Amino acid sequence: MKTIFHKANSRGFANHGWLKSYHTFSFASYQNAERMNFGALRVLNDDVVQPKMGFGTHPHQNMEIISIPLQGALSHKDNMGNKRAIEVGEVQVMSAGTGLTHSEFNDSKTDEVNFLQLWIIPEQSNVEPNYEQRAFSSEEKKNQLQTVVAPKDKLEGHALPISQQAYIYRTNLDQDKLVNLTVKSSNNGFYIFVVEGDIDVANHVLGKRDAIGISETETVDIKANKNSELIIVEVPMN
């Protein structure tokens, strides 16, 4: 088993006034040669957007972009005609492929929006762009893994499709509960991100916003030391 431990306070940070952004991996002005990616997981940003502010129209190409709101709602608009808000409990996927443009905005006059944005390197370039979002039941992630993103050729449950052999799982663990992870492929690794709580995994104790990458093993056990919310990304390591 190979592990890489990322404490919450080791992340890059940018304060743009309207946006506070924590970068797990190198992004924009935060560049760290030792924090470029974890396998196919290229970006994990923890963003807080102030009321009535947002990201203007900007392009993406050849990247799988997943947004997961943690607090508030973020309005989305793109050049494919999609225009709607992403709310807590929902997950959004954009396969940028040959190229798309979009904007994201916090319409609230009073409340911040906190969301995670993940970028996964696709297995195939220049696919047709695709946008989907879906609400997921909170009960289906209680003390078990809920698959919210999966490869488009290996979809399971209500998972959203991406162009990579990667999966994203969510789980809410009660105190002292255990969950076991088993890789879909021997080439895959797990990146475990603690949204809230405190867990034991691979001889590490992780708290809020800590993360650990685990590879070169088939199974991983996670134990919650208190009620915890986790996002787990399973990605090819090469």
From TrEMBL:
N-terminal signal peptide: none
Domain Quercetin 2,3-dioxygenase C-terminal cupin intervals: 152-235
Domain Pirin N-terminal residues, every copy: 11-120
One Pfam entry name: Pirin
SUPFAM superfamilies, per database record: RmlC-like cupins
InterPro entries: Pirin (IPR012093), Pirin_N_dom (IPR003829), Quercetinase_C (IPR041602), RmlC-like_jellyroll (IPR014710), RmlC_Cupin_sf (IPR011051)
Gene3D superfamilies named in the record: Jelly Rolls
Membership in a protein family: Belongs to the pirin family.
Name this polypeptide is given: Pirin family protein
